[in-house]
Design a protein that fits this description.
Two copies of one chain form a homodimer. Chain A is of the alpha/beta class. Chain A contains ten helices and 20 strands. In chain A, strand 5, helix 3 and strand 6 form a beta-alpha-beta unit. At the A-B interface, helix 3, helix 4, helix 5 and strand 12 of A face helix 3, helix 4, helix 5 and strand 12 of B.
């Protein structure tokens, strides 16, 4: 991959977070001498701590490497080519995307192994894909099918592409009752696998599943995932017995950001190439994934875990009642779908941040957050508050540019997203 | 205002919704001959129906004009200069923004009357504002104060700006207990008004309030708003009696997208220039504001109301269980903070959409929506579904570009946003 398309990118004050009054190349922002808590950029602003990104990217590579698996990080989380480059540099097998738009962004930056973790539909969309595959012989691409209609639509697109169109590499998606996409049982999945094998326009390369939304059974969510992965292994073995796979080794891919430990454990005994797909690990968070991480560390005995890299910084705009502060960041600046952000840090007068104790965000509007603070916190108008968020995907997508900072909040770079 | 900065804007497939395989000037997209339901653009895509935008923009002008009020639409909703131009052309008095970033975008496009409906804090932020005012004598700008700290910070910024810096035009913000920003009672607000009058760096031009989040009293939310507006009038009269206002006529601004009828009625007897600030009316929606609109029509006797202009279009990706369809749009494509979207329309095989009856979105993930459909709906993989949304602000901000369509879904333009 390469970052060439970023070379000429100029930013100015029309991009949220960029200081008014001039313009700068994205790649020059790290050398402007700006510091976040000193007030060199307007708030709200989103930051990524480089030391944490670096740690997390290596941590995950080590984690899957020790367990005979690889990772194709779901880059829908960040949609930031600069972060993708870091993940690939640190050993990621490829990347995962959710949509054709995300696929095209990754191709623009020269990524040559992509899992589209969905069944692509739409004539235009499939034709674009086939054209991309036809023009790019080295592009190792996989997408999902979960139905005869999906098999048929993909096959027809390859036929429309003409003699030079290569077969589409396909993974059969196994789902579960009450879940999202995917065949509901192994019998149905096996039928789709046979239909794929029979279609000359498609090449059956493995099995895909997404366990991240499984509801807990009696033994808790990890047990439900474990049972589900056992069924995937059974399906995989059935496909092997019938000689359906057209890639060696065939792939089994599963594992979002919550249960990758259970997934790699469950697939360890199979002969598949195990491909995990966590997206959130690279920034991590201060919410749902931090909670999940505690379970993973306890289950695996890993001594060190992921570290939060992502914060949204905001000013205290108003303290209109005792113990109530209104902040200048809201639903346009952080995700709220997995819980409101946590006020972690406070900085006043350009000083390095200190932990903010006993405060809580209890509501948010489009452009404001409501924070309770105890008398001991002595929050004032103009203070800078650093928010930790829950679920990075829905915070990254609020920002065209996030600042890369060192541990002193010096801005050492800027990360462009493509949402 | 002018749209010159859009002249040279080139879009390509890295922008969500733009067809892969080339690039086009934003201003040329309307002449490409694309049609949404014929499949000329990849889904998901967001559209604005021009006939509805046109109707809504004129409707609101007529509504406030008949009631001796003006509107400074809250452009945080769309952050789309092309829509702002339409609103100003149709008679908007100015625009309202929430943040310095939004202010700078509006200034880039030459808007010369702006209400910043917040108390600006932060030394950098205030210095940028003062520099803008100093450089732009014709710029009619207002911001809020709700506290001695706010008065002090704004005054100091003007002093830092030197002899040529003009005073900042200020509105005192009146809030209410349990609400967001603003003085909690008239006594406090009057003190802030006096402090503002006494500060040579500030010019007291009126009163501001935001009633949109008031919780219903015994008489329902409209009664609570009515009572609140009565208090604003009392505050206004007190300021007049003390000779505090430094603008003629002084301004009272209130009125979000839910209760502007109550606001203009309550202020009709005052001698203030009444400035309403609805943002959502221009696109309207199919959710919370459509519900509120019914109340407004009933209360005012207006025979015709606002019409929904905004839809998000998606494919059916999978029908994995009877009655369950998974769609290719999710929390990255539509807002969910005021309710999930409603599946309104279906199109198959390039045909013009028909109403979709009896379907319901019951859940969403980052990139997917879950839809129940009755046996009678006969939904299939590849069908196009048009979603109506609730709360336009949090759907606009998911899109860099929305398509402008005519009633046949021909794409007749593209609308750029700046979030």
């Amino acid at each position: 991959m390469n970052l060439d398309p970023l070379d000429d990118l100029i930013l100015d004050e029309t991009t949220k977070g960029i200081p008014p009054g001039g313009s700068a190349r994205l790649l020059d922002i790290g050398s402007m001498g700006w510091n976040l808590v000193r007030g060199d950029v307007p708030l709200p602003a989103a930051i990524l701590r480089e030391s944490a990104l670096d740690h997390n990217s290596r941590w995950m590579q080590t984690f899957v490497g020790k367990r005979n698996a690889v990772i194709a990080p779901h880059v829908k989380t960040t949609m930031a080519p600069q972060i993708m480059q870091r993940q690939l540099r640190d050993g990621a097998w490829g990347v995962t995307v959710a949509t054709l738009h995300q696929l095209k962004v990754c191709r623009r930056f020269g990524i040559d192994r992509i899992v589209l973790a969905n069944q692509l539909v739409g004539r235009l969309e499939l034709d674009v894909l086939v054209a991309e595959l036809t023009a790019s012989p080295g592009f190792d691409f996989f997408m999902l099918v979960d139905s005869p209609d999906g098999v048929r639509a993909a096959s027809e697109a390859v036929r429309r592409g003409g003699a030079k169109a290569p077969p589409i590499q396909v993974l059969v998606e196994r789902g579960y009752a009450g879940g999202r996409t995917g065949c509901r049982d192994n019998e149905t999945a096996l039928e789709i696998a046979r239909a794929t094998r029979a279609a000359p326009e498609l090449k059956l390369c493995g099995i895909e599943a997404f366990e991240g939304l499984l509801r807990p059974g009696n033994g808790g969510p990890a047990d439900a995932v474990s049972t589900f992965i056992d069924e995937i292994v059974t399906l995989f073995d059935s496909c092997v017995r019938e000689g359906l796979f057209e890639r060696t080794p065939p792939i089994v891919t599963a594992g979002g950001s919550s249960f990758y430990d259970v997934v790699v454990k469950g697939l360890a005994g199979s002969n598949a190439q195990t491909v995990t797909r966590s997206g959130c690990y690279v920034s991590h968070d201060s919410g749902v994934y931090q909670a999940e991480q505690q379970r993973i560390l306890a289950a695996t005995g890993e001594p060190v875990g992921l570290v939060n890299a992502l914060e949204v910084w905001t000013h205290v705009q108003s303290c209109p009642e005792p113990g109530l502060a209104i902040l200048t960041a809201g639903k346009r600046d952080f995700g709220t779908d997995s819980g409101l952000p946590a006020p972690l840090l406070i900085s006043r007068g350009g000083e390095l941040p200190e932990p903010l104790i006993g405060c809580e965000i209890f509501a948010s509007n489009d452009q404001h957050a409501y924070m309770h603070y105890p008398a001991s916190a002595a929050v004032r108008i103009g203070d800078r508050i650093g928010l930790g968020i829950s679920h990075p995907c829905t915070t990254f997508d609020k920002w065209d540019v996030l600042f890369l900072v060192n541990d002193d909040y010096d801005i050492i770079g800027a990360v462009k997203t493509y949402f």
